TrEMBL record:
Keywords: ATP-binding, Nucleotide-binding, Transport. This is Macrolide ABC transporter ATP-binding protein. GO terms for cellular component: membrane protein complex; plasma membrane. It comes from Candidatus Woykebacteria bacterium GWA1_44_8. GO terms for molecular function: ATP binding; ATP hydrolysis activity; transmembrane transporter activity.
Length: 223
């Protein structure tokens, strides 16, 4: 059974008199344990696709199934529960709280989810290679280190699915590959499903499945 299945997925925006089909009739299957990379230029619709997969937005039409459940029919409360318990999000902007240390930024995510084991913050920081910088403020961390904190924050609830929107966009290629390597190790060791949208061509080498996106449509699929 597919972990994620989307059928005829479409998202339409109105801009004045214009209609923008950001996602245009997409069909895609993601199996448990996949490392899927969606590559495309800016404006191709890939970030909109990720927002739909992450239940952060609702499609205009089409179907999204996660664990064979049609999630686009869920109530807002049920969607919030799904995001908290099954999904982990990593974004291009680190979105760290500047007055909190690395550990506290991760702990804040635990508190938000109502989970009490604060020691887990240090455990996930260790997974991303940043335990020794746990008590540093974001201003004292490099861009790559801040992205590691953001990655640790996404991992704190042991998500079955990790969704990453341009996680290497603010990083040089060497540091970007280090972040992707962390995600690949999690994918390999814990069988977590990873979906990344990016314009970085080097992300292909980490994937077992690659799709290219342009003008709201999937162009090719490579295994």
């Amino acid at each position: 059974m597919a972990l994620i299945e989307i059928k005829d997925l479409t998202k339409v925006y109105k801009s004045g008199r214009s209609t923008i089909r950001a996602v245009d009739g997409i069909n895609l299957v993601v199996e448990k344990g996949d490392f899927l990379v969606v590559i495309g230029p800016s404006g191709s619709g890939k970030s909109t696709l990720l927002q739909l997969l992450g239940c952060l937005d609702k499609p205009t039409s089409g179907e999204i199934k996660i664990d064979d459940k049609e999630v686009n029919r869920f109530s807002d409360a049920r969607l919030a529960e799904l995001r908290q318990n099954k999904l982990g999000f990593i974004f291009q902007s680190f979105n760290l709280i500047p007055t909190l240390t690395a550990r506290q930024n991760v702990e804040a995510a635990i508190a938000k989810r109502g989970k009490g084991d604060k020691n887990k913050a240090l455990e996930v920081l260790e997974k991303v290679g940043l335990a020794e910088r746990a008590d540093h403020l974001p201003s004292l961390l490099s861009g790559g280190e801040q992205q590691r904190v953001a990655t640790a924050r996404a991992l704190i609830n042991d998500p079955e699915i990790i969704l990453a929107d341009e996680p290497t966009g603010n990083l040089d290629s060497r540091t970007g590959k280090e972040i992707l390597d962390i995600l690949k190790n999690l994918n390999r060791e814990k069988k977590q499903t990873v979906i990344i949208v990016t314009h970085s061509e080097y992300a292909r080498e980490f994937a077992n499945k690659v799709v290219e996106m342009r003008d709201g449509k999937l162009q090719t699929e490579k295994i």
